[in-house]
């Protein structure tokens, strides 16, 4: 409990911002869903077949995994709040539409007959009694959607939309239960608060509910007015999940702001490679650090066959091919190699005499491997283990941070790691020699659009200060400081740049 409170106090300002973002996303999604679903259901309240069709379609939307929707939207909408809100609105439509249709269908038909006999128009019927009678059921649907939206909105952090999910993702990545609990508890309490407020409104007069609705719209509009002094950022630098990308993007920020008048916004723990790649092409972000081996093995559509394991040659292929394919500029890489590797527990390696990957052949039928989804589907990952090493493990796929927990508690025996990962030291793992050279070189370098470099040509020289810098030992140590010692990535990044005299104090 003390650790939870201590972590909360340390990150209070981040929590306030995340809560504000979560409220923005959730409230806007809910209001948009109400604006779409309620009027549509009212207009079509007497058309049974059309209603059934719409309910079927909106019901099917709810069965689509939210992460899949976000992935589909990114190429068209970019990253940030737009794809997140679009997905949430889609999920929220069904309960609200169903509640509205049900509310109107349960009105006593005799009231309709009486109103018609008195010569009331459709609008008068709606205003005089229909809306009042249907409102409790409509609000019940709104309440259900609100709870669902707030819970699902935690995934918005995966596409750079912020919110309380950023705490959960960071907690999973850092194996920090306090961060996970802060995000989860805050989200749950927010859902309870929304539910309670809607329940209070549920039995109020339609006029009161409508006034509350318009008040919510006004407050939401005010929340999007830029805060005083918060000038628009000129460059957005994003990074994948993990301490290492966060350290690197903070180095980019420090270098750019130290040597130029360009302002930089960093978006750490952004998500998967594909999300960042699509966001860069879609102009939602401007720069992100990518690895040479990732470009040659995952991002290029051309089949390159087997590439040399020489780091310089792999970089040159990645640089030339990604420019030809997407007009993306790949600047010179840093020195350290963060290549894929296979690791086992040190005691497991000793018991079975494991030194290199080929040694795993004798354990193929008994060992359980825990791989990330990305590694499991890569040619320089599990596919390569099958084709080059002839290894067919029983595989459990999981999120990157969870594989360390799994191997420590012996739920798995083998896992993929990054060679500079501090968790290798923390979890006492042994990295096996890649004796058949499956894994290509992985050096980090800034990837950006050609138009960005044309607009800010100084970026090449500024970011080029990291070319050939940062050894594998230095990167591992910096990862350890963030992951294990709990230092802020921006402080670790700045300390390194100051030590190397790359920025001014």
What does this structure look like?
This protein is α/β, with parallel strands linked by helices and 505 residues long. It has a five-stranded mixed β-sheet with strand order 7-6-8-5-9. Strands 3-10-4 form a three-stranded antiparallel β-sheet. Strand 1, helix 11 and strand 2 form a beta-alpha-beta unit. Helix 2 packs across helix 5 and helix 2 crosses helix 10. The longest helix has 32 residues.
The main β sheet shows up as: 5 strands, mixed
The whole-angstrom Rg is 27 Å
Write down the oligomeric state.
single chain
Q: Which secondary-structure class do the elements indicate?
A: alpha/beta
Features:
single chain, 3-stranded antiparallel beta sheet, 5-stranded mixed beta sheet, 10 strands, elongated, 505 residues, 60% helix, alpha/beta
Briefly characterize the structure:
The chain is an alpha/beta fold. The chain has helices at residues 2-10, 12-43, 48-63, 66-77, 81-105, 109-117, 122-152, 165-174, 177-202, 206-223, 243-259, 273-281, 292-299, 311-326, 346-352, 373-376, 382-387, 402-408, 423-426, 450-455, 458-463, 472-483, 489-499; strands spanning 235-238, 264-267, 287-291, 328-330, 340-345, 368-372, 394-398, 414-418, 429-431, 444-449. It is built from 23 helices and ten strands.
How do the strands and helices of this protein lay out in sequence?
Layout lengths: L1 H9 L1 H32 L4 H16 L2 H12 L3 H25 L3 H9 L4 H31 L12 H10 L2 H26 L3 H18 L11 E4 L4 H17 L4 E4 L5 H9 L5 E5 H8 L11 H16 L1 E3 L9 E6 H7 L15 E5 H4 L5 H6 L6 E5 L3 H7 L5 E5 L4 H4 L2 E3 L12 E6 H6 L2 H6 L8 H12 L5 H11 L6
Parallel strand pairs: 1-2, 6-7, 6-8
Antiparallel strand pairs: 3-10, 4-10, 5-8, 5-9
């Amino acid at each position: 409990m003390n650790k939870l409170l201590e972590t909360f106090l340390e990150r209070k300002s981040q929590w306030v911002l995340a809560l504000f973002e979560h409220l923005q996303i959730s409230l806007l999604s809910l209001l948009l869903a109400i604006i779409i679903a309620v009027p549509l259901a009212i207009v079509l309240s007497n058309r049974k077949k059309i209603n059934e069709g719409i309910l079927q379609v909106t019901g099917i939307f709810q069965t689509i995994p939210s992460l899949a929707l976000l992935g589909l939207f990114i190429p068209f909408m970019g990253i940030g709040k737009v794809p997140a809100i679009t997905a949430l609105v889609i999920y929220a439509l069904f309960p609200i539409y169903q509640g509205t249709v049900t509310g109107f269908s349960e009105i006593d038909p005799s009231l309709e007959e009486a109103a018609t006999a008195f010569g009331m128009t459709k609008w008068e019927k709606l205003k005089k009694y229909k809306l009042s009678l249907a409102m409790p059921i409509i609000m019940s649907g709104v309440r259900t959607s609100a709870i669902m939206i707030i819970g699902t909105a935690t995934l918005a952090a995966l596409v750079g939309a912020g919110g309380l999910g950023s705490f959960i993702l960071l907690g999973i990545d850092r194996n920090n239960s306090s961060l996970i609990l802060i995000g989860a508890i805050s989200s749950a309490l927010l859902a309870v608060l929304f539910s309670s407020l809607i329940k209070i409104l549920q039995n109020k007069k339609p006029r009161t509910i409508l006034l509350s609705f318009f008040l919510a719209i006004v407050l939401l509009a005010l929340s999007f007015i830029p805060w005083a002094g918060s000038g628009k950022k000129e460059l957005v630098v994003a990074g994948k999940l993990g301490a290492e990308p966060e350290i690197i993007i903070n180095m980019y920020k420090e270098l750019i702001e130290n040597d130029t008048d360009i302002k930089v916004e960093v978006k750490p723990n952004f998500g998967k490679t594909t999300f960042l790649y699509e966001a860069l092409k879609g102009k939602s972000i401007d720069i992100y650090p990518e690895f040479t081996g990732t470009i040659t093995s995952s991002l290029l559509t051309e089949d390159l066959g087997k590439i040399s394991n020489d780091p310089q040659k792999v970089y040159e292929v990645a640089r030339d091919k990604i420019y030809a394919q997407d007009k993306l500029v790949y600047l010179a890489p840093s020195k350290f190699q963060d290549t894929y590797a296979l690791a086992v527990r040190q005691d497991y390696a000793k018991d079975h005499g494991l030194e290199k990957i080929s040694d795993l052949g004798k354990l193929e039928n008994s060992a359980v491997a825990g791989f990330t989804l990305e590694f499991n589907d890569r040619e320089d990952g599990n596919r390569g283990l099958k084709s080059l090493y002839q290894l067919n493990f029983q595989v459990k796929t999981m999120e990157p941070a969870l594989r360390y927990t799994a191997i420590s508690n012996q739920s798995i025996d083998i896992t993929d790691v990054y060679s500079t990962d501090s968790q290798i030291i923390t979890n006492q793992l042994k990295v096996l020699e890649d004796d058949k050279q499956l894994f290509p070189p992985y050096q980090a370098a800034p990837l950006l659009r050609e138009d960005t470099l044309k607009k800010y040509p100084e970026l090449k020289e500024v970011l080029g200060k990291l070319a050939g810098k940062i050894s594998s030992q230095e990167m591992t140590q910096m990862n350890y400081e963030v992951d294990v010692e709990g230092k802020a990535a921006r402080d670790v990044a700045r300390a390194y740049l100051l030590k190397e005299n790359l920025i001014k104090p």
